[in-house]
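Let's sit down with a protein and look at its sequence and fold side by side. We need material for that, and I hope you will provide a protein of your own picking. Once you have written the record down, we can walk along the chain together.

***
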Amino acid sequence: MLEGKVVAVTGAGRGVGREIALLCAKHGAAVVVNDPGVGGGGEGGDEGPAQETVNDIVAAGGKAWANLAFVNDPAGATSIIEDAVQRFGRIDAVVNNAGILRDTIWHKMSHEDWRAVIDVHLNGTFNVSKAATPYFREQQSGSFIHFTSTSGLIGNVGQANYSAAKLGIVGLSQSIALDMARAGVRSNCIAPFAWSRMTASIPAETPEQKQRVERLKTMSADKIAPLVVYLASDASQEVTNQIFSVRKNEIVLYNKPRPIRSMTKLEGWTPESIADELIPAFKPSFARADEVSAHVFPYDPI
């Protein structure tokens, strides 16, 4: 599916990113494996994970190069794309998978934890995508594959920073898809369900939370990779501006927010008429106030 292609995968030293890099290489792509080897909250650094993924690809007969840059640094993000072009001659797909978590209930969230998560997820996605854009425009082709989350699409407790970043990525992807369509460039999002180092930090205190964690443990990271390979390939040339999820062997397509009800009052609305007329009419269509992904996906994937 990816013979002759060059793919850059961020956060590819472990978990979902590693599985994506391995499968892209198996399908013929040369892969830039980006991972600074930080901890789940963005602390530290270790070249081991990226190099190990590269070593495994090369041992299997593939082509890969390790990049240790931080995606939240514009110069570092640029180096990821430059490594692809200098080492392998081009760049065909960017997989924005890198991320950290600093989960805290809203009233205890610090400015530092807010900025750190936004910087890696949202700004990091912007930085790497921006660096690849001139090459995509010049060759009139390319694929952006961004990782969002049901924490942003649906909501989750204790993840205001992560949820905001992940829904922001959806908006970014949509704008990229619209702005780059004339250049033949695609931009799509994937919300993965998989047990990894990041999801291992999800609180599991209540029976419902424990049930959710146990369900996640059955969803392996390698199940996400086939959709990424497809979206990076020429076979997906007509697929852009979409949001997908992968849950084990289930692939989900999301709709975008669209109006579901409207009501017009010719004389105009007052606060009282909103309370007496509008809200009772709208209330049957209200989203559940405490909704999280477990309410939307209450069943176990096969």
